[in-house]
Amino acid sequence: MEAQRLTTCPYCGVGCGIAAQPGEARALTLKGDAAHPANLGRLCSKGTALASTVSLQGRLLHPMISEARTSWAAATRLVADTFAQTIAEHGPDSVAFYVSGQLLTEDYYAANKLMKGFIGSGNIDTNSRLCMASAVAAHKQAFGADLVPGCYEDLDLADLVVFSGHNAAWTHPVLFRRLEQARGRGQSWIVIDPRRTDTAEGADLFLPIAPQTDVRLWNGLLAFLDAHGHVDRAFVDAHVAGFGETLAALGADDQSLSAIAADCGLPEKAVADFYRAFAATPRTVTLFSMGSNQSAQGVAKALAVINAHLATGKIGKPGAAPFSITGQPNAMGGRETGGMATTLAAHMDFSPEERDRVARFWNAPRISKRPGLKAVEMFEKVRSGQVKALWVMATNPAVSLPDAGKVREALAACPFVVVSDCMTRTDTSAFAHVRLPALAWGEKDGTVTNSERRISRQRALFPAPGEARADWRIVADVAQAMGFSDAFAWRSQADVFREYAELTGFENAGRRYLDLGALAGLSDAEYEAMTPVQWPVKPDGGTDRLFTDGRFQTSDGRARMIPVAAKGPASAVSPDFPFALNTGRVRDHWHTMTRTGLAAELCRHTPEPMLEVHPADGAAAGLTDGELALVETPAGRAVVTAKFTDRQRRGGLFLPMHWTDAFAPSGKANPLIEAKVDPTSGQPEFKHTPARVAPY
Ligand code: SF4
To answer: Residue ranges of the 4Fe-4S Mo/W bis-MGD-type domain (predicted)?
Structure first.
C-alpha cells in the first residue's frame, strides 16, 4: 500500500481536496480532505465515485498517426513540421489551439506561451469560453481585471444568498452543503431560475423568471434601491465611477414593480420581496453561474448583478459579494495564464506596454498583436478554411460546442487536426490526423485554481500508463521541435509553475492583483508539498477577499458601473418554433461523460437524456410522458424520451447536454443549439433556442 496523497477533484470549480490512497493495479480508496478549505472533508457523488473511473478502459496509450501506432518522435515531428509549414505558407493566424478547463495550469501556460509568444497568434481559446467568459468580460469592465471578489467563507457569513441562474444543488454540491449549514443558522435564499430546480425547492423565495429577462429584473432592483434610499452614497462617492450614467440609462424602461413583474413573468409581490430583501441585507452574496453566463446577454447579466452590489457597497466585505462560480476544475487557471483568446498572459492584455512586458519576460520573437479567435468563431474559421491546422487538447468540441453538426463539418474539412486526449475514441478524435496520449486525473501532476482563486495541487497517484505524457510536456516537445528550444526547456511541472509565478509578479509592484511572485522561488520539494493558497499570494500567505480597501484594478482605482439594456434572446420563439429550449447538466454526470460514464453508480441517477416539458405543454403537443419525442430547432433535431414535470415553466423545454455518440447518438443536445453568442464575451446562448416538439 502506497502512502496517502493529497490531490484535488477533477470535476467542478468547487475544487474539493481529496485524500487518496492508491493501491495495487490502480486500485484507489479516497475520501474528502478534511484540511482542504474548499470542502473540509466533504465530497459529492461524482468525487466519491472517482475510484470507479481510473481504470485503463478506453485509454489512448500510444501516439497514433491516423490508425497506425507511431513513436513520440515521429508524431512530434509531424505536428511541429505541419504547424511550421502552415504558418510559413499562410501566416500565424492560420493555426489554432482549442484547449480545456480540464488542463492543469502548467499545461495552459505552456500552450499559451507557444501560441501567443512564439507562433505569434492569439488563436488559443478554451472550452471555458462556454462556461464563464461572460463573467470574465464583466469583471474586466467593472473591476479592471478578471477578479473574483469573494471567497467561500463569504457563503458562511452571508445573511442572504441570491442564486441567479445557478442550480448549486446539482452543479456545485459541496458548496450547496456548506450553504445548507449556513441556512440552518438563519441564512435566507432567493432563487432566480426559469426551472424549479432542487436549489429552488429549498429557497425562501423562488422567482421562476421568464427566460432571458434577468437584466430587466436586476436593472429594476437598481432603480428600486435608488428610489427607496438604499444606495450607499459614501461607498459610491469614494470607490465607484459611472453611477449617474447607469442610473440615467434605467429611465429608458418603466421601472415600476408592476411593469418589471409583467416583463419577467413574475408575481409583483415576489419581485417586491426580492428587492426589499436585497436592500435590507448588508451581508448579501449573489451567486451566478451558467444560467446567467450562457446567454447572448451574458455580460449584461453579470454587469447588472455587479451594479446592484456596487451601488450598495456589498463587495469587499465579509459575507457580501457578486460571486461567479466556475464550472470546470481549472477554468480559473486558464483565465489566469492566458488560455483565453482575449487575454495575453497572466491577466495582461494586448496594450503595447503589456505586450512589451510579456515579450521581454518570455524573450518571445513574435508576441501576438491582438486577441485571437473565440471558440465559436474559431470553428467557423476552421470550417471556412481560414484555420488550416488545429490542435484540440483535452476537450470534445464535436459534442460540446453549439451547432455541433457544423463543428463536425469543420473538423472533417480541416487539413490537419491534432487531438491530445486520454481517451482513444471521442467524437472529436474521430477527425484527428494525429492523436497524442495525455495523462488523466490520477496521473497528472500540477496545479488548479478553484472559484475562490484558491490554487491547489493535483498530484499523481499512479505511474503514467503506456506512453502517455503530461500535456505541458507534449506542448514543450512540439515547441522545441519547431525550433524554440530554450524557452521550453522545462524539466518538470515545477519548472513551469515557477516561471508562471514569476511572470505574474514581473514588473507588477501591486498593479495587478494576480500576483504569485512569492511562489516563484519554490524549491521542487516546496512545490511538491504546496498547500492550498488564494492569490494574490503575499510573502506571508494568500488573500481571501479582494477590494477590502475599496481599490479596484482600474486606472483610477475606482470600480465602474456600466449601463446595460434589457434585450430579448438572440433568437425569439415563433409560431414555427414556439418553445424556448434550455440545456444544462444533470446531477451525476460531467461534460461529455468520458469519465462519469465509466461509473455505474453515476449512471443510475439519470440513465438517459430526457426532454423535460410542462405537462400541459406536453399534452397540447400530443406527447406522452415516458414516450419518445422529436425535438427540432433551426439547427438540428434529436429524439429523446419526454418527461412531464411541472418544475418546467410553460413554454420551456430542458434537455441535458452530456450524451454523445457513444451513449445516445440520437439524443445529443448541442446539435440543436444555434451558434448565437454574446457579442462581447463570445459565450454561446445555450439557454434559449427556439424549438418545437412532436411525438416520434
Ligand atoms: Fe468534485 Fe465538485 Fe463534487 Fe467537489 S463538488 S467533489 S469538486 S464534483
So the answer is: 2-58
Alpha-carbon distance of 124 to 60, in angstroms, equals 24
- Per-residue burial over 508-535, b = 16 or more CB atoms within 10 Å of its CB, e = otherwise: beeebbbbbbbbbebeeeebeebebbbb
Question: Tens digits of per-residue pLDDT, 555-589?
Answer: 999 999 999 999 989 999 999 999 999 988 777 78
Q: Is 462 left (phi over 0), alpha (psi -120 to 50) or beta?
A: beta
- The Cα 542–Cα 533 span in angstroms is 5
CATH of domain 5-53: 2.20.25.90
Query: Which residues of the chain form CATH 3.40.228.10?
Result: 133-325+556-560
What does the alpha-carbon distance between residue 395 and residue 667 come to, in Å, rounded to a whole number?
20
Q: What dihedral angle (degrees, nearest 10) is formed by the CA atoms of 403, 405, 408, 414? A: -70
Closest C-alpha among 547, 538, 544 to residue 516: 538
Distance 478 CA to ligand 1 centre (A): 33
* 30 touches ligand 1 (CB under 6 Å): no
What are the residue ranges of CATH 2.20.25.90 in the chain? 5-53
Quick one: fold of 133-325+556-560? Dimethylsulfoxide Reductase; domain 2 (3.40.228)
C-alpha cell recorded at residue 110: 505552456
Lay out the sheet containing 124-126: strands in order across.
Answer: 68-69, 64-65, 434-437, 416-421, 389-393, 95-99, 124-126
Give me ligand 1 centre to Cα 105, in Å.
18
The domain over range 579-695 is classified in CATH as 3.90.1200.10: no
607 Cα to the center of ligand 1, angstroms: 20
Q: Is 16 in the pocket of ligand 1 (CB under 6 A)?
A: yes
> What CATH code is assigned to 64-130+338-525?
3.40.50.740
Q: How far apart are CA 215 and CA 564, in angstroms?
A: 8
Cell of 445: 501532476
- Write the CB contacts of 681 (distance below 8 Å, at least 6 apart in sequence): 129, 133, 134, 136, 137, 293, 298, 299, 374
Confidence check on the interface: ipTM exceeds 0.90, yes or no:
yes
Examine the pLDDT at 668 and tell me if it is beyond 90: no
Q: What is the pLDDT of residues 118-147, one digit of tens each?
A: 999 999 999 999 999 999 999 999 999 999
State the span(s) of the chain assigned CATH 2.40.40.20.
579-695
pLDDT of 662: 67
- Contact by Cβ (8 Å): 386, 413: no
Q: Name the residue at shortest CA distance from atom 3 of ligand 1.
A: 44
Ligand 1 contact via 690 beta carbon (within 6 Å): no
pLDDT (tens digit per residue) in 231-270: 999 999 999 999 999 999 998 899 999 999 999 999 999 9
The SS3 call for residue 335 is: helix
